[in-house]
């Protein structure tokens, strides 16, 4: 199976969100071919280079969501692609539709009852349809005329946006937008819509790109899913969306944080960009065949953001349990026999990044109460490193210094680290130091692991502690209750008294600690390993392929009317197993060849597919940019043509050479190319990658998201 992995700010870059999860997924599904289509968020992310690519990655294409827009194309006279009168009218029509949908407020409260509710649904559906019409219309115009950057940054676009903001029924914040706000919004919309102008979608004489994929797997429902939406509309390629942190929720959190930050965007800018992200997310959820949230917390957010419950399927993220196996196997009741890093005194352990959302202040106040009940108790705070939030005033660095000063005041004899004699009850340590060489040893040094966060997504430290067989005390935030599942104690957030009482109860009962730790380890090994995650997606890939129909003319993904008026689509005519090399698959291939008129599915370059909706019915006509007759031998004028690099497979620093500005996609081939149908397709047993969860780097966040992305910061 040929899978297109769509990412934003993540894999294949060494520093980014979900990079480790993507790497494990690709290595575990080595029987499938993957093409990676990545959107980068900043120059530091690109400068850090790529991860070591698995052998089944045959193509990597990247494009930036930062920096200046695309430069002039080969057919332009100067700095911008010139629009004629007809193209200018088309741009005005499509951008007006998109801008009016973005600026439109929520449905007005027309009363109670079924009639009012139905009217609200109709209005919401009409706005969603208008947004989709504008989005796909701009995609068609971009493909024909070579890009949208000059038009979106023009005075013409600013005037259209201003008219939409001043229209009756627009958002209240949009009415107050000034010229500077409108310029900021159009600039960030241009960056967000750059995927519409990329040459990733295939045309005659070019790389077929996403048109040749069997499945588009988007890591996130935001901008990462935008190329998948175009491929689904033009070629009927199924779209799968995986979210372990809901992108729209992260945008809302970043926008709220920016509201109180100095030199932040104004309220009109934040409101309009949040509305755009919401519309785009709802369109992605509506067009996806399946959405896989990482936990019930993310699932509830997706439902609130418009995802249909019938298309949601929870798949827990997979984590490597091997580094914690030794500590988990020797887990024993509290006492000095737990290992060389185990303290003789009853010890609480906290592991994570020292950020305000982790609420270490409440933990210190709770520990003061613990000391009153258990005077010999100790608290170890192990910091795993600072993320992007560490920069600037009020970041993690300042917060960590504040917590150290508070601990020194509350516990005057507290030592600043574990190497200063160990006289104090509180110690601040860095992961990798002699006191905490590895994560497993840090968790193994205590009887109880504590999580005091006020904001959390998927609690990775809890899962790691469960792998180590440790009892846990956590605050009720995010997916904590779902992960713990009765194997630990949960208390309300921002409640030091409740946190202290729970810790004291476990420290005074070693047998209960051991029992909860054993149960936690069994639960983690059952639900949160790499193996279960990989097998879940192996089955999902096969399921999505089995539900697709194959046309009688050999194309895939759409239904074609037969001469007699009957539906000529042939469900299951080309099962995924038919791609597996081997003599045993010959029967399936012959059946597929007969069903497709003598052609074996998957050979050569595919013809353009007829669009189809989720029920197999025909969609509106394929956009002209997806029709071979409208494609030239080369890239259209002004279209980002892309630069080519050849990374060496297995080179961890295989970042593309050359500049990284503009909207040009960079294409690289990592591995052998397909020849005919003899690719490395099918379902073959895989292996997981060793390693552990790692936080997001400190790359610059794309300006589209208004603020620093908090999704990966919540993971630690």
UniProtKB/TrEMBL annotation:
<dbReference type="InterPro" id="IPR050194">
    <property type="entry name" value="Glycosyltransferase_grp1"/>
</dbReference>
<dbReference type="Pfam" id="PF13692">
    <property type="entry name" value="Glyco_trans_1_4"/>
</dbReference>
<feature type="compositionally biased region" description="Low complexity">
    <location>
        <begin position="594"/>
        <end position="607"/>
    </location>
</feature>
<feature type="compositionally biased region" description="Gly residues">
    <location>
        <begin position="656"/>
        <end position="665"/>
    </location>
</feature>
<dbReference type="InterPro" id="IPR022622">
    <property type="entry name" value="DUF3492"/>
</dbReference>
<protein>
    <submittedName>
        <fullName>DUF3492 domain-containing protein</fullName>
    </submittedName>
</protein>
<feature type="domain" description="DUF3492">
    <location>
        <begin position="1"/>
        <end position="309"/>
    </location>
</feature>
<feature type="region of interest" description="Disordered">
    <location>
        <begin position="594"/>
        <end position="716"/>
    </location>
</feature>
<dbReference type="Pfam" id="PF11997">
    <property type="entry name" value="DUF3492"/>
</dbReference>
């Amino acid at each position: 199976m040929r899978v297109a992995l769509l990412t934003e700010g993540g894999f294949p870059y060494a520093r980014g969100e979900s990079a480790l999860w993507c790497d494990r997924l690709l290595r575990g599904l080595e029987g499938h071919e993957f093409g990676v289509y990545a959107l980068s968020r900043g120059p530091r992310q690109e400068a850090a280079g790529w991860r070591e690519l698995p052998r089944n990655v045959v193509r990597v294409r990247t494009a930036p969501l930062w920096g200046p827009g695309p430069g002039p194309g080969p057919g332009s006279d100067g700095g911008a692609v010139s629009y004629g009168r007809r193209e200018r009218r088309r741009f005005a029509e499509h951008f007006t539709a998109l801008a009016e949908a973005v600026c439109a407020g929520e449905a007005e409260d027309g009363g109670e009852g079924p009639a009012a509710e139905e009217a609200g649904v109709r209005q919401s559906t009409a706005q969603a349809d208008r947004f989709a019409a504008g989005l796909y219309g701009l995609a068609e115009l971009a493909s024909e005329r070579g890009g949208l950057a000059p038009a979106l940054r023009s005075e013409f676009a600013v005037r259209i946006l201003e008219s939409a903001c001043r229209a009756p029924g627009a958002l209240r914040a949009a009415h107050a937008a000034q010229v500077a706000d409108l310029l900021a919004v159009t600039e960030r919309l241009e960056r967000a819509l750059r995927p519409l102008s990329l040459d990733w979608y295939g045309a005659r004489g070019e790389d077929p790109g996403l048109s040749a994929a069997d499945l588009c797997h988007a890591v996130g429902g935001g901008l990462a899913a935008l190329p998948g939406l175009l491929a689904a509309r033009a070629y009927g390629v199924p779209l799968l969306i995986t979210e372990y942190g809901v992108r729209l929720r992260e945008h809302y959190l970043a926008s709220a944080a920016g509201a109180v930050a100095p030199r932040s965007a104004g309220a009109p800018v934040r409101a309009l960009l949040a509305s755009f992200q919401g519309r785009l997310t709802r369109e992605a959820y509506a067009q996806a065949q399946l959405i896989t949230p990482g936990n019930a917390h993310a699932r509830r957010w997706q439902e609130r953001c418009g995802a249909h419950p019938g298309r949601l399927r929870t798949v827990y993220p997979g984590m490597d349990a091997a580094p914690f196996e030794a500590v988990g196997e020797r887990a024993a009741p509290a006492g000095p026999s737990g290992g060389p890093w185990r303290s003789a005194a009853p010890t609480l352990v906290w592991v994570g990044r020292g950020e305000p959302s982790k609420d270490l202040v409440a933990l210190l106040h709770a520990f003061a109460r613990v000391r009153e009940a258990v005077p010999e108790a100790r608290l170890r705070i192990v910091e795993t490193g600072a993320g992007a939030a560490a920069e600037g005033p009020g970041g993690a660095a300042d917060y960590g210094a504040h917590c150290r000063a508070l601990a020194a005041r509350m516990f005057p004899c507290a030592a600043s680290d574990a190497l200063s004699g160990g006289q104090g009850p509180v110690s601040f340590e860095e992961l990798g130091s002699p006191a905490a060489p590895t994560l497993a040893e840090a968790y193994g040094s205590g009887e109880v692991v504590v999580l005091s966060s006020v904001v959390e997504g998927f609690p990775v430290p809890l899962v790691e502690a469960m792998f180590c067989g440790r009892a846990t005390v956590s605050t009720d935030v995010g997916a904590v209750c779902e992960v713990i599942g009765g194997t630990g104690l949960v208390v309300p957030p921002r409640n030091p008294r409740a946190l202290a009482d729970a810790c004291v109860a476990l420290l005074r009962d070693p047998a209960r600690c051991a029992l909860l730790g054993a149960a936690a380890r069994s639960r983690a090994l059952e639900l949160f390993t790499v193996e279960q995650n990989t097998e879940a997606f192996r089955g999902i890939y096969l399921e999505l392929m089995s539900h697709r129909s194959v046309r009688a003319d050999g194309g895939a993904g759409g239904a074609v009317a037969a001469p007699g008026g009957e539906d000529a689509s042939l469900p299951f005519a080309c099962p995924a197993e038919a791609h597996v090399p081997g003599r045993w698959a010959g029967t399936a291939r012959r059946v597929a060849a007969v069903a497709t008129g003598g052609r074996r599915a998957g050979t050569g370059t595919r013809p353009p597919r007829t669009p189809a909706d989720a029920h197999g019915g025909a969609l509106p006509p394929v956009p002209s940019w997806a029709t071979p007759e409208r494609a030239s031998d080369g890239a259209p004028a002004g279209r980002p043509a892309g630069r080519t690099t050849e990374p060496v497979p297995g080179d961890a620093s295989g970042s593309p050479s050359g500049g990284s500005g503009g909207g040009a996609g960079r294409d690289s081939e990592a591995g052998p190319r397909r020849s005919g149908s003899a690719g490395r397709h099918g379902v073959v047993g895989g292996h997981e990658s060793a390693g552990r969860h790692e936080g997001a780097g400190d790359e610059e966040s794309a300006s589209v998201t208004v603020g620093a992305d908090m999704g990966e910061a919540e993971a630690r």
